Q: What sequence folds into this?
């Protein structure tokens, strides 16, 4: 069986956050939006249909948890999230992954989508630490709840 | 309880296809991409977290079925789908809805996302009929399987 590895293009644009039941959760390193990327640990999967139905349901639940974490990130950064955007595209990086992004009517792409926009902006170290802590807090309490 | 109604902005850009267990499925009327819109019949829902977990799992299954239907549409139009894009955004129309879109490396937006792009192109009537028949065939056989 092939080993699970995350595509280097995902790795280079994101920071590790947490290992959920199905997915590795990573923080998208673009300070324009609170953003979490979920990568199911299923080597070779490129489309959602490549997951078994129970894993698809789990991906959905992890996307909901990631949505809460994205809201926590937005709040920690002083920019509360007004709308979640969830997408699985894979046009650039074929490895199956899902994006959960926090949007606001005053953000850099509203109301258009965020994907493939030029101008990614690295976080200030202090802001990154705040965003990470807020996301982790939420993801870890969700993981504890799931395990109890 | 509020009645289920589809936002007029969704209605005006799409054609009715089928009533699935959770969602109304509609064909996105933009000939640039085979496209299905799923609208859960849950009045007031704006985010996926507003659905109960079993409905979230059902939405995921209907997105997978819609993906097969989008592939069937692409094949019927002589432009086989190479990648599915699935997204729930709601920045323009807040009513919860999910998009399932068939992409090709030679399409009008590749590798960027399709949402909010100007230039929507109406189908020729014959092509629309072919696309609709191919999608319906798939959606009805999935509905029959689910009921059996």
A:
């Amino acid at each position: 069986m092939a080993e699970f590895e995350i595509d280097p293009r995902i790795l280079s644009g994101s920071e590790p956050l947490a290992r959920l039941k199905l997915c590795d959760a990573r923080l998208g390193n673009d300070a324009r939006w609170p953003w979490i990327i979920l990568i199911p640990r299923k080597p070779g999967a490129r489309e959602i249909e490549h997951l078994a139905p129970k894993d698809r349901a789990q991906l959905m639940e992890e996307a909901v948890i990631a949505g809460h974490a994205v809201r926590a990130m937005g709040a920690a950064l002083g920019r509360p999230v007004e709308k979640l955007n969830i997408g699985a595209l894979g046009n650039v990086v074929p490895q199956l992954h899902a994006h959960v992004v926090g949007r606001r009517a005053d953000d850099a792409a509203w109301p258009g989508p965020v994907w493939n926009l030029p101008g990614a902006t690295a976080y200030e170290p202090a802001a990154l630490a705040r965003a990470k802590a807020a996301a982790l807090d939420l993801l870890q309490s969700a993981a504890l709840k799931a395990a109890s």
User: Anything to note?
Assistant: Chain B has one domain: 8-109+118-142. The beta strands of chain B are 14-19, 23-28, 35-40, 83-88, 98-103. The CA atoms of residues 42 and 91 of chain B lie 18 Å apart. The domain at 8-109+118-142 of chain B is CATH 3.30.428.10 (HIT family, subunit A).
